């Protein structure tokens, strides 16, 4: 089955700096890669996703890149703000598959210092 | 509100008790999931129901028993739990075969004493 590795487990940056979180996956059939943000005491919520037919996707200050050959994908947050502080989870699944279950990485706790 | 509702929000139970967690989704999804979230394993998949059939059981102890009576409801029946089972239990739902974005409920914070 799919296995998703996520690094780093914790990340501390100064406000205004960029933050990068990296994930690798094992199943070459996976073609859908969402990123979830979980603020303290709240549920995980989707912030951006990418499908395997594109290599990069941007949404304002966040972007995700995908390297299918190397089986890794990354989340980039630019001009970080204190409200970006949260735990971020990457995940992988097979879009259009019969199961659709997401396998998550272990999460990265991002702290943005003002 | 994301359309996925979990009850109760908090639960304290003894090791000999039997309790159930409930999840309900109003999004028209046809797949539902139970995840366990703890300090050791931040998001651990427990069970997946796709089109009301269980498709995955990740070596979860038998003291956890899921039930999916229809595509909108999911239960997790608990009995003779251990203190290490204390965690946040998250329910999620998504479409199978289509957009697989998962929507999460608020979770049930379970404490086993």
Provide the structure class of chain B.
mainly beta
Major sheet characteristics of chain A: 6 strands, mixed
Q: What is the 3D form of chain A? A: globular
Question: Which stretches of chain A of 5+ consecutive residues score pLDDT under 50?
Answer: none
Of all chain pairs, the largest interface belongs to: A-B, 24 and 27 residues
Strand composition percent of chain A: over 45%
Query: What is the 3D form of chain B?
Result: globular
Q: How many strands appear in the DSSP assignment of chain A?
A: 11
The average pLDDT score of chain B comes to: 89
Discrete helix count of chain B? 0
How many strands, what sense, and barrel or not for the largest sheet of chain B?
7 strands, mixed
What does this structure look like?
The complex is a heterodimer of chains A (114) and B (113). Helices cover 0% and strands 54% of the residues of chain A. Chain A has strands at residues 4-7, 10-14, 19-25, 32-38, 45-51, 56-59, 62-67, 72-77, 86-92, 103-104, 108-113. In chain A, strands 2, 4, 5, 9, 10 and 11 form a six-stranded mixed beta sheet that branches. In chain A, strands 1-3-8-7-6 form a five-stranded antiparallel beta sheet, with no helix packed on it. Chain A is globular. Chain A starts with a strand and ends with a strand. The mean pLDDT of chain A is 91. In chain B, strand 7 and strand 8 (73-79) form a beta hairpin. Chain B starts with a strand and ends with a strand. The model of chain B has no long low-confidence stretch (mean pLDDT 89). Classes of the chains: A mainly beta (114), B mainly beta (113). Chain A binds chain B through residues 32, 34, 42-46, 49, 87, 89, 93-104, 106-107, and chain B through 2, 31, 33, 35, 41-43, 45, 48, 50, 55-56, 90, 92, 94-102, 104-107.
């Amino acid at each position: 089955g799919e296995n998703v590795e996520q690094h780093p487990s914790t990340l501390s940056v100064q406000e205004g700096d960029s933050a990068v979180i990296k994930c690798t996956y094992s199943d070459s059939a996976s073609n859908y890669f969402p990123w979830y943000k979980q603020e303290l005491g709240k549920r995980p919520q989707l912030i951006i996703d990418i499908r395997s037919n594109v290599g990069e996707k941007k949404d304002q200050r966040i972007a995700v890149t995908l390297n299918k050959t190397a089986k890794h994908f990354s989340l980039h947050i630019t001009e970080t703000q204190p409200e970006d502080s949260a735990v971020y989870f990457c995940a992988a699944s097979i879009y259009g598959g019969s199961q659709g279950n997401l396998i998550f990485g272990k999460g990265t706790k991002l702290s943005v210092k003002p | 509100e994301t359309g996925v509702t979990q009850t109760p929000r908090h639960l304290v139970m003894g090791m000999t008790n039997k309790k159930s967690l409930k999840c309900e989704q109003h999004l028209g999804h046809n797949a539902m999931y139970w995840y366990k979230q703890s300090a050791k394993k931040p998001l651990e998949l427990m069970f997946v129901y796709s089109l009301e059939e269980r498709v995955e059981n990740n070596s979860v102890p038998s003291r956890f028993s899921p039930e999916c009576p229809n595509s909108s409801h999911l239960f997790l029946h608990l009995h003779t739990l251990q203190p290490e089972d204390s965690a946040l239990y998250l329910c999620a739902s998504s479409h199978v075969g289509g957009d697989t974005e998962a929507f999460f409920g608020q979770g049930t914070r379970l404490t086993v004493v």
